[in-house]
Write a structure and sequence with these properties.
Elements lengths: L4 E4 L4 E6 L7 E4 L2 E2 L2 E6 L12 E4 L5 E2 L12 E4 L5 E2 L12 E4 L7 E2 L12 E4 L6
Parallel strand pairs: 2-5, 3-6, 5-7, 6-8, 7-9, 8-10, 9-11, 10-12
Antiparallel strand pairs: 1-2, 4-5
């Protein structure tokens, strides 16, 4: 199992920049790599990745850049965590096989770019996770 590529923002935080040497078809963006907290996924990081089937994003990721998963033709399943509040335009554009999307909570996104799901004509289910009330 390989590791995703990243760039260092500061002494504690990183941004995922791409697949690196990770060959998994079902990618889990972790909350930490090499002792750094993962806080974002860079613009175009996985653009045109024809092998990607699913993406689960850690709660530490607060930002998904523009066209991050654009034209990932085989992407079918997506989990956008509760802490993510910014998603760039065309982030998941033209993901033709995208069927199932889970959002961490209602009203989580402060900034949702234009045409985030442009050309995703096969979406069958959008789920919003529920929190337990105390």
């Amino acid at each position: 199992m390989g590791k995703l590529s990243y760039k260092i923002l500061d002494k504690d935080r990183i941004v995922i920049t791409g697949r690196g040497d990770c060959e998994d078809k079902n990618i889990v963006i972790p909350d930490e790599i090499d002792g750094y907290m993962v806080v974002a996924i860079d613009s175009c990081a996985f653009r045109y990745d024809k092998d990607l089937n699913s993406v689960q994003i850690a709660n530490t990721v607060i930002h998904i850049g523009e066209s991050t998963f654009y034209e990932c033709k085989n992407l079918q399943y997506l989990l956008i965590p509760e802490e993510t509040y910014m998603v760039g335009r065309y982030a998941f554009g033209c993901c033709n096989k995208l069927k199932h999307i889970i959002f961490g909570r209602v009203g989580q996104l402060d900034w949702f770019g234009e045409e985030v799901f442009y050309g995703c004509n096969n979406i069958q289910n959008i789920e919003i996770a529920r929190r337990k009330c105390l």
